[in-house]
What does this fold into?
Amino acid sequence: MAEERKEQKPQQPVKKPANVFEDKYWKDSLLIYLLGFILAIFTGIVFYRTWFPEWKKYQKEFVKIAEKKLGKEKVAKIDLGIRQIWNKELMGPNVADRCVTCHIGVDIPGLEGDDVPVVFRTHPNPNGLLDKHPLNKFGCTICHGGIPNALTKKEAHAEHGVRWLWPTYTREMQEHYKFEEDRLVMLQMNCNYCHRFEKDVPGMDYINLAKDIMIEKNCQSCHVIDGYGGNIGPNLTYEGDKSHEMFDIHAPYYVIKNGKPEPSGHSIADEMKKRGLPLSVFSWHILHFEEPRSITPTSSMPTYNFSEKEKRALTMLVMSWRRLDIPSRYLSHPEKYQLLRLMEEGRVKPQPIEYISLKSSEQAKVVQEKEESQAPSEETKEVKKEDGSSALAEKGKELFDKRGCTACHTVGGGRLVGPDLKGVTARRDKKWILSMILNPDSMQKNDPVAKKLLEEYGVPMPNQGVTPEEAEAIYEFLKANE
Amino acid sequence: MQKLNEWWRKLTWTFAPSNKVEATKAVTKNFILHWFPARVTFRSMSWTYSFWLGTISFSLFLILTITGIILMFLYIPSTERAYWTIKDIQHVVSFGWFLRNMHRWAAHLMVFFVTLHMVRVFFTGAFKNGGNPDANRPVNWAVGMFLLVFTLLLSYTGYLLPWDQLALWAITIGANIAKSVPVLGNTLHYLMAGGTQIDQNTLIRFYTLHVIALPALLLVAVSYHMWRVRRDGGLAVSEQYKLQAKKEGKRLVPDDYTTFAVPALIRRAFLVFLISTAAVMLLSLISNAPLEEPADPSWTPNPAKAPWYFLWLQELLAITTIRTPWFTINGGFVGGVVIPGILFLWGLIVPFIDKSPDEATGVWFHPSRKLQNWTFGLIMLFLAFLTIFAMYFRGPSWNIYWPWAWPPIPHLF
Amino acid sequence: MTRRKFLAYLGRFAVLFALVGQALAMLRSIVPNAVYEPPKKFKIGFPDEFSEGITFLSKYRLFVIREGNKFWTISAVCTHLGCTVNLVTFPQPKKVKIGKKEFTEQWEFHCPCHGSKFYGEGTPFAGPAPRPLPYYPLDIAPDGQLIVDTSREVKSDFRLVLNA
It folds into this structure.
């Protein structure tokens, strides 16, 4: 540069015009400045969006409302900013519940009541729920569903459009499914993740109802549930894990005319639309529980005429059955989950897993005693009144329930899947009845009467694995109820 | 104050030369500018000749590299954690949403613009030497074809990293395309997957390819590509001056048809970079990068569609299974390996089989190249048609539906 | 050939040998010798647990079919490009012709990715899938459970027949 200056100085008067070059593309500079402005505006928007995200608006709103209710001093102590609950063993590394960034009031007493917007309200504590499930241990999404880590309402709740399988259960969702409840009941499904092998659990009224129905109707006689059961219907142990891809809602919907399923002319999806139900697996189950043959016309599952509440309760139960990696410390009765695993691995023979009732301990004791001994009870007394015979018939009645006969047969209640067994001991001889109980498969293949019945009823009678002694007891029961 | 000015001048004179001598020296005295020639022809500066598509592509690559390096601080390539680090980038990391969107949009645009660039070069016959005995532009065209493949591979390895359903099934299908190659198929699949199953081993392979192996290859190839342009005497359109001069029997004087590259060329290149950045920013502000459900091998999304630049390939895979009474050839091989392979090879040799005269060099739709332009154009249109068809008319189960009549897939709730 | 030339060639060859050798070693290192994967042979449960007809085991991407005391498995991985096929069941059995034989099926397999369709016994009849869905051999493990071996395929007439 220095030598340049030296050169230029003496030559300057001559070289100057030739040395200067014409800037033909000077307009580019203007365009650059214009783009600079545009980029600056964009950058401004980027900064605005980052510094004023959705959640900050919620927090500002919260402070206003909380200060009115609790006073400025208390509210000043609350940590604002991004708030999260992280429990590595329950949620996994890199996963944290950030619901509390907007739902700040959940663990602050004094924010109950209708004058506080739902989002800011103190978390209700029915039956000491929160004391047993502390927020800082369990987080939120394990019970309420939704996407952890997310910080916008749409994503955190996994609203429609967000690609996530397990959305937050909202009152809006319950309205879509026409639940008749004001309170949130759908999240009871998630309670069942850890409380699967309990019943009569306070706060889980829908699930409790569904489990009672399941036990009463003996679903396990046809379905494997909790690793044990019959094989007439599909294995429901992890029904909640079934992907939506496995449910064809465009298959035809059938209506029952004169006891027989006939195509309605429209699809299952159309039926859901007709009833205003969302197009979902949840709706599919509701329809299926209502009338199995409307979905699968060749199904041998009986029509139980469940109420709207029962249909939803059963759907919730069935969709709560999932295989999850919850550490055993969080499970209620982890030994039962362990038993289920052992059955799946074949280290233990399939056996029914009994649900522990959480009714008060005194009542629980009574229930146990009743099952263990054949102590005189009201029902036994009744039987004794009628014909004065055996504890065997009493045992037989128990077995009639336990061994799954009630799934398909009534005694004096009319035809179900199978024939009404009232008076069967008069119609058929003892040997025939015992053979049917002990060897239904071979009977239905070889015995002409059994074959005819099979043709008439269309559904094969499964072998329920009854022992000869038990068969005797059942026979006595049937005899006693002529 | 005077001292400050002097010091500033010393630092920046190469970017803003004040006279011809400085302008000439600028490119030799500045590391960044040593890429550029001292002079550049007016025609190659034209907006409507090249549309500066190559510069746009490179600008996008720059944006991708910078945003990519920052994202590397934030992303963990573990099958357990990857998905959640992406969620965190979107929600919790300051400007994370912006970084991810910029990266995603720049990637899509880069694929689009390198394709456009290739189309431009073909239609202007810019892979020809135009009578210049020292140039070998067909070589640069071949390098460009490889650059296109690297760009597509970078895109592919990139959208596998979030480990969501799109990622898992895209890898599964890609690895199975490799498997469909006769003889070598199983080995190729084993190498791609890092085992027999798509799992952590697969993720780390694609991560490594995406963040260092492919970018390094691309960088080397791009450097050579740009050096070749200079080595061949600038953009092909510059040959027109010599051809014209020869025809008219005139002599060429630099000032008549060139100007100093500094500031003309570098300023316009910078402008193009700013325009590219503005476009990517605008898209990042109005549209978020998508994320599907976490990877789950037990169910396949329906429909499972590749990003737009692979839809033509996906459509081909689905319709090119050859069935004869004696044997069947998997469409994955025909549509996924053979046809793209043939297209690529044909692309490579295109300049070597183009027998058009030198006059067609650097001219849009020169009449002597009607056949070539029509052939190329129709092939590109066909691929575009396949893309649009697969995008709007293929619905669940890859059945054909009107775009407004796709049957709904149920949710869980 | 002089001694000098010989040594020069030897030296150059040595350099080449060293560099090429190391390059090959580096390439070989990324071909895995041991992988972290679940075993190819695994148990799927007791025969009694399976209902008559077809059951989908999503964890293993496998269908298990039971006909009385006969069992067999069909893979749920589409032979086109590896997507998981969906099971489509029919309320009424469907009669189809496969080659020269007639076959009555109660279900089919449809792949969501590119529209491949397979008959109930695995033969593709629509879409790009080139081969039938593979069958894997079934056996009874010592503890009585069904055990599948996905490392080898068997013909479509394979049946595991249980007595009693």
Notes: Residues 1-12, 374-388 of chain A have pLDDT under 50 and may be disordered. Chain A has three domains: 54-168, 191-344, 389-480.
